[in-house]
Amino acid sequence: MLSMLLIALPGMSQSKSEAVVLKQVEALRRAMIDADARALDELVSEDLSYGHSNAVVEDKKRFREKLITGESDFITMELSELTAKISGKTALVRCRLEGQTRDGGKPGQAKLHVLMVWQLKGGKWKLLARQATKLL
Q1: With the CA atoms of 87, 24, 66 and 60 taken in that order, what torsion angle do they form, in degrees rounded to the nearest 10?
Q2: CA gap 37, 103 in Å, rounded
Q3: Are the C-beta atoms of residues 110 and 98 closer than 8 Å to each other?
Q4: Rounded-to-integer distance, Cα 43 and Cα 125, Å
Q5: Domains, in order of start, for the chain
């Protein structure tokens, strides 16, 4: 999915670091859908601040726990309009997220604009912060 989005944006040049960050974004998308605890641990900083569109903010422990227990459950998640900008050891990623959810067993929809902050630490890009707003 991610590679198709990048090919669809022919006018944009992309650094190697930006490409690596966008691969991490795709890995996070898959890990969230699959509720993959090991992948989540590898992709997310211990200092995570994860902001939802309803103003709830979670740390890494709570973010991970909700996905693994199904309290937060993405059935599908499509990312579009991806942009990545690198500034030193920090990457800012913006995207549009649309997906089907089943939080706590209740069907729902997500239509969001998302800002993610990734940090290069120990040679790996990890999600440090995320904030979503609802699309109108």
Answers
A1: -40
A2: 17
A3: yes
A4: 7
A5: 2-7+14-134 (3.10.450.50)
pTM: 0.89
Q: How far, in Å, CA of 2 to CA of 51, rounded? A: 23
The string of pLDDT tens digits covering residues 78-128 is 999 999 999 999 999 999 999 999 999 999 999 999 999 999 999 999 999
**28: burial class by Cβ within 10 Å (0-12, 13-18, 19+)?**
buried
CA–CA dist 77, 18 (Å, integer) = 21
Long-range contacts (CB closer than 8 Å, 24 or more residues apart) made by 29-32:
29/1, 29/2, 29/77, 29/79, 32/67, 32/74, 32/77
